[in-house]
Amino acid sequence: MKILNNISLKSFHTFGVDVNASSLIEIESLSDIYTAKEKSCFNGSFYILGGGSNVLFLTIPEVIFKICFKGISIIKEDDDYIWITVNAGENWDDFVRYCVENNYGGVENLSYIPGTAGAAPIQNIGAYGTEIKDTLQRLNALSLTDFSVKEFSNKECAFGYRDSFFKHKENGQWIVLDSTYRLTKRNHNWVLNYGNIKSFIENKTLSLENIRNIVIQQRTAKLPDVSVLGNAGSFFKNPIISTEKFEQLKQSYPEIPFFSAANQKIKVPAAWFIEHAGLKGFKKGNVGTYVNQPLVIVNYGGATTTEIIEFAKMIVRNVSEKFDVELEMEVNIV
Ligand SMILES: Cc1cc2nc3c(=O)[nH]c(=O)nc-3n(C[C@H](O)[C@H](O)[C@H](O)COP(=O)(O)OP(=O)(O)OC[C@H]3O[C@@H](n4cnc5c(N)ncnc54)[C@H](O)[C@@H]3O)c2cc1C
After folding, report:
1. Which of the following CATH numbers is that of domain 270-333: 3.30.465.10, 3.90.78.10, 3.30.2170.10, 3.90.120.10?
2. What ipTM describes this predicted complex?
3. Whose CA is nearest to atom 14 of ligand 1?
4. Which end of the chain is more exposed for a tag (fewer CB within 10 A), N or C?
5. Residue 10 DSSP class
6. Nearest atom of ligand 1 to the alpha carbon of 114
């Protein structure tokens, strides 16, 4: 367990806002959590941090716990499947790379998503037509109420679109310790219908490695590099609207893109609304929407959390006034 006092959080979250925490504790094992408890570190306000790629710090809790414990282990396998457990502090993309290199299929479309394996189930990360709910079998989490460890099945995680059990009533009350995925060893379930993967793969061998490479190419072309421009990926969720509302919009905008969602609803890319509100590449002070992807709000350098939040609220207001659609933030505001 490493304790860092009076530390800038700038390099601990991808938005790169310069805010200070009085204490940041790096947790490297379950026993570190119990040691921290004995030292009363959980008695005041605290926050559980992974790679910081989906957070903005507005108020700073007394203690930030950064989850660092590593490890990937094979639990069991048969001819078709392998069950692999990944500890919460592992970098998510290192885990994906490990799977692809070993020809274990199911997470390749989720290549290059920043952050830790422990945070991935919290918002059910997704990209290119897949989400971790498609392969996650179970996870172990520690309750911050009684410090016991509970196993959650996939069903108990109550995954939804960028959503899970852990984002609701008991938000912040659990530390994900590890999660187990069932991956294919053969007869992989290819998901090729998103982001032109199909057309890119046409002249190549259909392999996990090629899918991963295509996804990485597309992501790097579209998204800003966090080491150059601070951001947290998609700032807003894609709104899910009724078919009536969609038909109404379609009359004015026949080219409006859409995907079908559950319960006969329609999901429309939030980026489309932002672009058609005239805010693609729009910049105000140190904050703006990214030129190649308006769903990403970027810190052009020196932005404060308040500036970023005010900018996001301005987008929500504009989209609401123009389309009568409410955008919901995907980024966690602490
Ligand atoms: C450039 C860029 C691209 C992105 N692309 C995508 C994408 O395609 N799809 C997608 O879904 N997301 C995407 N994201 C968002 C982000 O990568 C994911 O939300 C990721 O899972 C966050 O991981 P993290 O470790 O950085 O979590 P953090 O930002 O540190 O934390 C996120 C939330 O999880 C909680 N948390 C973290 N670790 C734990 C733990 N061990 N136990 C309990 N709670 C925990 C935190 O308290 C917080 O509420 C992108 C972000 C960036 C910067």
Report:
1. 3.90.78.10
2. 0.99
3. 233
4. N
5. G
6. 17
